Amino acid sequence: MNSAATQAGSGQTAGPKKINWLLLALEMRTYLALLLVFAYFAIMAPNFLSVDNAVLISKHVALNAFLAIGMTFVIITGGIDLSVGSVVGLCGMVAGYLVLNGIDPGYGWSIQFNTVEIVFLVCMVGIFVGWINGTLVTRLNVAPFIATLGTLYVARGAALLLSEGRTFPNLNGNADYGSAGFPWIGAGTIFGLPVMIWLLVLVTGIGIYISRRTPLGRHIYATGGNERGAALSGVRVNRVKMFVYMFSGLMAALVGIIIASQLKASHPATGEFFELNAIAAAVLGGTSMAGGRGRIWGTIVGAFVIGILADGLIMMGVSSFWQMVIKGLVIIAAVVIDQFQSKLQTRIALSQEADTVR
User: Beta partners for 190?
Assistant: First the structure.
């Protein structure tokens, strides 16, 4: 009889152990995916492991990572921001316009800006678009998908109107106005590393600090986990949502500035489909589309997976059409795995509650 009880007990503990191992594997999926794609392209793609290619990939990853960090905060609150790609294009065009023309009131004189002032003004444009998104979601109760879809079109249209669809070329700046340093933002280096990499390190550190060490970070997770419960607990839910959309707009403005300064030109079509890569990086990094769960560091790893996958496929000569198909499959797989992980966590929680009752 004791033997039978022992066997039954061991059988009951074997199941939870397997589930826990499976849950651990699911939580580590982003790191496993990064390891797999890196190993695959290191073997299959020529010159993949070269220093020049590593720097190039890091630059591409940085652009996506900025947007993905902002997107992570938005998704954690249970929202979505489809406008970031268009905001990148709009802010790039604003930067190009200010570098070339300044502001001309039409009285025979103009206001010119130095590089720092240009960066500040462009960032304010991105924050303003984020404020509009936040206002639509919090004050007018527009669904985040619809609100940001609308601002996607508005921002893209504004970018086209600013130059009537033309490119702003030769953004070398003017030494007399203090804007000659504008190209340095996208093409300069500090201690041998591109400026944008240092900016990414700074933004990542800020994002991790906010999410882990501040009341605001706890309120962001609480809002996404249970919005009504958070509101009843004293969390100012509307302010939290305003912050995440404005922060996302700021990240989009930063990417627009970097691209315009890197190319020394700005085009109104810049940033098309950038929002999809940002969402993919966030979800692949473990951010739940249902809200309430996500990590900035996981998002950075997810951005590296997307970046290595994209550049590796290009180096192998894979058609751009197939690249879109593969990226789409990666997004679908990430969401499916996330749903499975959520169900598994719920199952474990219910099992633990049942054990406690016993």
Answer: 193
Whole-angstrom distance, CA of residue 329 vs CA of residue 35 = 18
Q: Is residue 357 very low, low, confident or very high in pLDDT (cuts 50, 70, 90)?
A: low
Any idea which residue has 């990430």 for tokens?
Answer: 334
Rounded Cα distance between 280 and 328, Å, is 9
Q: Do the Cβ atoms of 99 and 265 come closer than 8 Å?
A: no
Q: Among 16-25, 133-142, 276-285, 322-331, where is mean pLDDT lowest?
A: 16-25
Residue among 86, 78, 221 nearest 151 (CA): 86
Report DSSP state, residue 294: -
Record the tokens describing residue 205, joined without a space: 């550190």
Which two tokens mark 343?
A: 């169900």
Q: What secondary structure letter does DSSP report for 103? A: B
Q: Token pair of 235, please?
A: 């969390």
Structure tokens, 272: 């098309």
Separation CA 45–CA 351 (nearest Å): 46
The CA distance from 51 to 214, in Å, is 37
SS3 label, residue 5:
helix
Q: Find tokens 């220093």 and name the residue.
A: 51
**How confident is the model at residue 164, as a pLDDT?**
87
What mean pLDDT do residues 287-296 have?
Answer: 88
CB 61 within 8 A of CB 309: no
The DSSP code sequence of 183-207 is THHHH-EETTEEHHHHHHHHHHHHH
CA-based angle 342:345:347, to the nearest 5?
A: 110
d(CA 44, CA 312): 9
Q: Which residue has the tokens 């929202």?
A: 79
Which residues lie closer than 8 Å to 16 by C-beta, 6 or more apart?
348, 351
Compute CA distances 34 → 30, 37, 101, 133, 137, whole Å.
6, 5, 44, 33, 35
What gap in Å lies between CA 275 and CA 75, rounded to an integer?
12
